[in-house]
Amino acid sequence: MNKIQQEIKLFHDKLEPILEKILEQNNKKNTKRTYNTITKPCKKLIQKCSYKSISDTSSLCSLAYWLYIYGDKKSALEICEITHEVEFSFEFMGWNSGIQNIFGLEIRIARELLGENRRNNIPLNLLEYCFSKEVKKELRYPQVLREDKIADCSSRFLNTELLLALYNMIGFGETGLFTEINRNWEKIEEAINFYIDYLNED
Fold it and tell me: Cβ of 23: how many Cβ atoms within 10 Å?
């Protein structure tokens, strides 16, 4: 087993008990919605979660956001914090659904839950990613709300579009790195709360 394989195994070994605990908590209140957004991803990530896999890390990020949406901030924060121990590669893929969104979520939860400011904890390579032309072009107001895409999408994909909007607004907005987003933060915060309320509806 080489060094990277050892690091992947160590990351998974530390993540697994967190996922098992989340799974146990949600088995008691399992619905179709929580099965698809919490239980199923947990089972998948318990089987395999490589921090080198875009698919695995995107699933991990999505899980953290859904936990936050459902109000389980403590578990969401645990997932955010475990990512400190590895170095991710951030690549612009034409859509914003990867692990890069988890750092803004940590900043938000740490402020709400612990009263802490963690903006100084952003990894250097994420800062470089945030300031790339592709990302800066995507993160403008009101485009960050994804209102046009949400209005045009079918009901089948509505939750996905709302989640992607939360990735933009929380994942990048909470970093404080984008002047235009900072300037419109009050309106963005209203949209965040509105989207979360909608996603919590049965």
Answer: 17
Q: Where are the alpha helices (DSSP H) in 115-157?
A: 124-130, 133-138, 147-152
Q: Give the domain range for residue 154.
A: 138-202
- Report the pLDDT averaged over residues 20-28: 89
- Are residues 82 and 3 part of one domain? yes
- Show the tokens assigned to 21: 């605990």
pLDDT recorded at residue 22? 96
Q: How many residues does the chain have?
A: 202
User: Among 118, 147, 170, which residue terminates a domain?
Assistant: 118
Taking the C-alpha atoms of residue 190 and residue 6, their distance in angstroms, rounded to an integer, is 43
Task: Examine residue 21 and state whether it is found in any structural domain, yes or no.
Answer: yes
CA–CA separation, 173 and 185 (whole Å): 8
Query: Are 104 and 182 part of one and the same domain?
Result: no
pLDDT at 53: 87
Closest by CA to 170, choosing from 198, 201, 191, 153, is 191
Number of structural domains, the chain? 2
87-141 pLDDT tens trace? 776 665 555 667 889 999 999 999 999 999 999 988 888 888 888 877 877 788 9
E runs forming strands in the chain: none
